[in-house]
Amino acid sequence: MSSVQDPFYIVKEEIQESIDKLLSMLHQWEQIPADSGAHVHLTKELLATCESIEWQVGELDKTIDVAARDPSWYGIDCIELDKRRRWTSNARAQVGTMKKAVVAGKDSNGTSTSNLNGMRRELLRLPDSDQKERSNAYSARKNDDFMSSESDRQLLLMRQQDDELDELSASVVRIGDVGLTIHDELLAQDKIVNELGMEMDSTSNHLDFVQKKVSMLMKKASIKGQMTMICFLIVLFIVLFVLVFLA
Question: What is the pTM of this model?
Answer without folding.
Answer: 0.45
